[in-house]
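Table 4 source record.
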Amino acid sequence: MNADKFRGLGVAMITPFLPDGSIDFPALTRLTSYLIEGGVNYLVVQGTTGESPVLTKEEKNAVLTCVAKANAKRVPVVYGVGGNNTLAVAESLKSLDTSIVDGILSVSPYYNKPTQEGIYQHYKMLAEATPLPIILYNVPGRTSSNVLPDTTLRLAKDFKNIVAVKEASGNMEQIMDIINRKPENFLVISGDDGITLPVIAAGGDGVISVIGNAFPHVFSAMVKAALADDMDEARRLHYILFPVVPLLFVEGNPGGIKEATAHLGLTTNKLRLPLVNVSEATRSKIIALTSNIYKALPYDLIKK
């Protein structure tokens, strides 16, 4: 199964809310076009950054439908379908409208803390429940369990529709171990914006990004340059964004990135509980850095 369409920059889209907490579909439509025009390679709908835990099933379907309509097949769409109830996740995959989804991002089971064999059997059932390509998602900081390289590689070799892993362990040694031993067409995708450049330099295939919601023009150019082995240009662009990356996560995600998109006029900074807005001190720093990055037109920033 060809996974090339998931190479490059994927953006884990935020879910814009109106001040009353309902979904802001016009803003979601604007954001979709902004990302595509900014050069992203694919869109990721209803990942962690989209506040998926606090949306109903009906709301998630409405968000997916809205993005698919605005996208109009311009780029692939990956949909987040995960959980710690394997049977329920498998049933969700079976009922999914595959005509508007190009791939699945599925987080490793959280809270239950399964063994490596449990993780393998979980993904085995998911792979057998859908014909769509699946991107594994390893994020130990949220799930409290690490998908070890041997488990990732076993899944990659055993199931043709498990085509990639989003590695958000932050462990470069682990990431490089997977890259070194993976099947030829299996993709290793960074799950952390700040280490995207070193992951690609080590042989990785791109990133599923948070910061790309606000800065797709610069970040897509950086990823493209890195994948083309133009490391001088990739480093230049990397360090344009480097100062703002930690600020976007210091008080949680997506609180930080929503301050940046709100400042750019793309969305409000509204979150749903239990998430709350970042502090005024963090907000002020994010706004200042966002203004500095966009003091020129985005397209001008990526020119030498």
